[in-house]
Structure formats: C-alpha cells, structure tokens
Amino acid sequence: MTTTTVRPDAHHDSDLTRSRATAVARSAAIEAQIRTDPSRHRVLTGDRPTGPLHLGHLFGSLRNRVRLQEAGVTTFIVIADYQVITDREVADHIASDVCEIICDQLACGMDPQRSTFFAHSAIPELNQLMLPFLSLTSVAELQRNPTVKAEAEAAGIRSLSGLLLTYPVHQAADILAVGGTVVPVGLDQLPHLEATRLIARRFNDRYGHVFTEPDALLSEAPVVLGLDGQKMSKSRNNAIQLRHTADQTRQLIRSARTDSQRRISYDPVNRPGVSNLLLITSLCTDEAPEVIAERIGDAGAGELKRVACDAVNEHLAGLRARRADFAAAGQDVLQVVRDGNVRVRAQATEMLERVREAMGTVY
Ligand code: TRP
Q: Which keywords label this protein (predicted)?
C-alpha cells in the first residue's frame, strides 16, 4: 500500500470535461482493436428494466451489442434493477420487465452462452465494492454529475435519494467488478463513465494497481424519435415496441405526427415528424432517407406511413417470430439471468479478493 493521499476533489476537473471529441477518437481506436484482437477487451453494458424495449433501443444500442458479441468480445449485460428505484417509488413489476428485456435481447440475437446477463441486485459483491469507491468520490462531484441532475429533473424529483446521487458509483462497481474495459454508451452516459475512470485511477493511485480504466465506446447511432416527435419512451406511449404485432405497429405509425406539406422530403430540422419516419425506414432498409423521400415524392404522408410500416414490420418479422417462439415454448428466460448471476458472482468475488489484498484488509 502506498502512502499517497488522494483527495477526491483534487486536480481532476479536466478529466470530468474530457471532451466528447477525445471519446470519439478513443472509440475509433477501440473499434480497430476489436477488429484485430477481440480478446483484448471486455464489454459491459446494461439497461434499467423499466419496460419492454423499443425501436429506439434496437437502433441505439441492441444492434451494436449484437455486433460486438459477433465480433468475439466477451460481453456482460447488467440488468440494472436497483436503478429502477432511483427515480420512482413504485417498482411493482420488475421481474416481468426483466423477462421482457431478456426476451427482446435473445430475439435480437444475443446469445446467453457467449454473453452474460446478470442482475445488479443478485451480486452482493458489487455492494461491497461500493464502500471503498464511495471514499474516492466527493459529494460535490456527485452533486454536479449532469446525468444525475437530468434524470432527477426528468422524473420530477426535488429531493434526491442517496441512491440516485450515488448511482454513478454503483455503475462503476458494475463495470469494474467484471474487469470491463469497454462500455458502449450514448452521450448521456459519458459523465458516469468519467466517474468510473476516476474511481479506478484513484483506487490504483492509493492502493496499487487493481483496475483497468474502462473506455466509452460511443456509437454513432442516430436518435429515433417517438411517433409524437418527443423522445421515444414507453411511458409516453409513443414507442414501437419490439414485441408489438404488425397490426399494432400499423396503428401506431398511422397515428404518427407529420405535417401538411404533400411532397415528402428529408429535413430533420423543419420537418421532424416526416424525417423521423424516413429515418426509421432507412434504418430498416439500409437506404438513405433522401432516396426514400425522393421515391415517395408527391404521394404524401399516407404513402410515407405505408412505406415506413412495411419496412418496420418486415425488418422485425424474424425477431418477432423468435420472440413468439420463446413464449410458446414456455421457456424460462429468467434462467438466463440465474446462470449469469452465478458466473458474475465468481468473477466479482475474485475482484473483491484483489481489492481486499490491495487495501490490506485480509484477515
Ligand atoms: N445507467 C444505465 C442506463 O440508464 C444502465 C446501466 C447501469 C449501465 N449500470 C451500467 C450502463 C453500467 C453501462 C454500464 O441506461
């Protein structure tokens, strides 16, 4: 153990503002490493189980997750069930939401043999890592985390719970416990990743090298809006869920907000509704949105909706069929999580041993 003192607040402001540009450049380098030597990295990513997954998740993160798995990178997926109670008081159907998101991911192509799913609440070792990690994080740093602030605001919370305030530190435990080196995230999660990097660095500075500082892997995923032009979200009832039927999808897309201009054009700033349907179609067919717009031309929003709906239903047909098969087979999808919990507990226990040795608390 070294005697270096590490004040949580000292000389790290520049780290917290490590620019988006740096993360983008790092991401490109990591992508190249993954192509040449996937065994060098371990991916950890996750979701909070607040409801079934939708097209925003599919294009924003799930496709990328499957791609990384297929590239041969060891992948962990945390089901962040404790995060559900950071910003809401009632959490009455967590287990069924967990089932839904597992089904969605298996149907997308995630393979529980190669990718490990685990529930945060099932791994007590994560909570043990929290205490030393908390000692390396200042209250001021937690209070200025922009993602925590935004989440509190979005949930209409005036008085932060200790759990929400410390959530970035829990997330650091999720990542570091399994030795994650790469964390695929959207921009909103960058501050959390910076917090994880700081914790890893400060721990190593104080106690000797145990943790590898993980990098964000920023995806260039386009943001798909909900059918009302707001962020796509289950609670706003504006989402096309992966589990919806073709008919439900048709009804939803029919109700999408467009505009009164007959000629279809791709113009996200001035025509968000029309452009969003073009983007969704484009993501399903791999054609440029402008090309799709040109083809529809003067046929108007009705035709655009028909085209978008066919594209989505066709794109999701295989996934939905696989999803229906799990249900029909009565497959116990929670077994996937139970198996993953066992694997992750073994790894987290090993990591905790190393932490105890570094801290000199082995008795
Ligand atoms: N906070 C993430 C979200 O809201 C979910 C999450 C929890 C996570 N732990 C994580 C993501 C660790 C990446 C790494 O979506």
A: Aminoacyl-tRNA synthetase, ATP-binding, Ligase, Nucleotide-binding, Protein biosynthesis
